[in-house]
Design brief:
Helix content is 58%, strand content 15%. It is α/β, with parallel strands linked by helices.
Length: 384
């Protein structure tokens, strides 16, 4: 039995509008900073500032990518994407992380070449310090507002982009120190600053790429989180056990697949209702859960495997009537209930009261006659 509840986690229209407006502002700032740092870096002979300007242009490229993928990621589910499009945001974070690693590699390579020929490096001038200070202030401002919106709408991609802004602010601090040191006569300090910027970029890129890959391959959520979910499930009335609890994330949403063990004697509808209650309790406590699939089990089948699959109802009924033909007719059986437990079938038959029948003898005769059926377990007889 399976009970399924699905409610994709999509952002509202006002949130989408705020996101896109923020990305436009971010793109304009990154464009302006990139031009400022590269032009001033060239005029002021600052390799570190030029590298930082390249970083800003990489921010601009990722802002465009974030804007595009955010639009895709917040679209409603469709026939081709029944779980929604949140993984587009995850893909964007992976691409962003990879780009950061590539940019860092290029910056390190160029800085090493310049260190080798350090005597040929021209000392930077003070305008590079001013450009770096402007960059620090602008990027920290972008970090704060992007992080705030990302937390509000629970967008991993926006939070990733916020940290990208913070990395640019921190890299500009390193540039400020490196350029200041070079002006004071320590020429190699600017190259070290450039490599420091590259190292920070690479660390952030690696973190984004690793987390995105973990999500794309459906890595389970933390053990503590799963334990809290299991505890909530087990507190629901009617649940005898929970096993095969599988978790995965899709963007900011969490998806669950649960096997619930219930009393094997209850009705199908009651088992389904217990599953609905479990879904309701989880939704109340964990608002990030957007999709829950509940499998209702009559026993703990987490480790069990069926060597031989017991037959279905029609085959069971035909076999029983065949071996019981000397004791019962088909019309004598008012109701036949089958319980598939422990790889056997326990059979309940409901008969009309017949004073001519000896109840104990009939049960013994039926069990003996059906002893050749390998899948038969217990036989219970009820009288109306």
């Amino acid at each position: 039995m399976m009970s399924e509840q699905s409610q994709p986690n999509t952002n509202s229209t006002p949130d989408n509008l705020q996101t896109r407006n923020l990305l436009i502002v971010s793109g304009v700032v990154d464009l302006g900073l990139g031009l400022l740092k590269i032009i001033i870096g060239w005029l002021a002979n600052s390799h570190a500032l030029i590298a930082d300007g390249i970083h800003s242009f990489s921010d601009l490229a990722t802002d465009i990518m974030v804007w595009f993928l955010n639009r895709l990621g917040t679209e409603a589910p469709d026939d081709d994407h029944p779980y929604g499009h949140a993984r587009f945001e995850t893909l964007g974070a992976l691409i962003l992380g990879t780009l950061l690693i590539l940019v860092a590699t290029v910056l390190v390579y160029d800085s090493v070449l310049r260190l080798i020929d350090i005597d040929l490096i021209v000392t930077p001038t003070w305008p590079a310090l001013v450009a770096a200070a402007i960059s620090i202030a602008a990027k920290e401002w972008l970090y704060q507002i992007t992080r705030g919106l990302g937390e509000k709408i629970q967008s991993n991609l926006l939070l990733a982009n916020a940290w990208h802004h913070r990395s640019d602010a921190l890299s500009s601090i390193i540039v400020l120190l490196g350029v200041g040191g070079a002006i004071l006569g320590v020429a190699w300090l600017e190259m070290i600053a450039a490599m420091g910027v590259a190292f920070m970029i690479a660390l952030i890129g690696w973190k984004l790429a690793r987390e995105s890959i973990e999500e794309l391959v459906d890595t389970a959520l933390s053990k503590n989180y799963v334990a809290n979910i299991q505890e909530t499930i087990e507190k629901t009335d009617g649940v005898r056990g929970v096993h095969s609890l599988r978790t995965r994330s899709m963007g900011s949403a969490v998806i669950l697949d649960i096997h619930l063990q219930v009393d094997p004697a209850i009705s199908v509808s009651e088992g389904h209702h217990i599953g609905d209650w479990v879904s309701l309790q989880l939704e109340k406590k964990f608002q990030e859960i957007s999709d829950i699939t509940v499998h209702i089990d009559a026993e703990d089948d987490a480790e069990g495997t069926l060597n031989v699959m017991p037959p279905l109802r029609n085959e069971v009924k035909t076999a029983l009537l065949t071996v019981w033909q000397d004791h019962l007719r088909e019309q004598d059986i008012q109701k036949l209930t089958l319980h598939y437990l422990d790889n056997v079938i326990n059979v309940e038959i409901f008969l009309e009261e017949d004073p001519a029948r000896n109840r104990q003898n009939l049960k013994a005769d039926l069990i003996l006659a059906a002893s050749t059926l390998p899948w038969l377990g217990e036989v219970l007889i009820w009288y109306k």
